[in-house]
Amino acid sequence: MDTLEYYRNAIKELLTRFSGSSEEIESQILFDTEHDHYQLTQVGWKNKHRIYGCVLHLDIKGGKIWIQHNGTECEIAHELVKMGIPKDHIVLGFQSPFKRQFTDFATA
Hints:
By secondary structure, this protein is α+β, with helices and mostly antiparallel strands. The protein has 3 helices and 5 strands; from the N terminus they run αββββαβα. The longest helix has 16 residues, at about 5-20.
């Protein structure tokens, strides 16, 4: 399996692991393998309030996994490392480019 396919499968596994639907709130996993955009969103109603939002958003750009949004309490970058993704192939896209240089992960 080539690197790109491995990264796609790792992201799919990660999003699937974090998904979970209830009677009122549905988790939707969105895989755009043509453009390499991946999201986990929640849609539904809770106590008469509309629930809609992105929980996780990851992209593959330039051969690296970009974490664009992490709405979980889990450190997704470390989960990817546990799955065999090198730290220098993970970009914390939700952080400003200036701050990325102070992390153990890729800057871009």
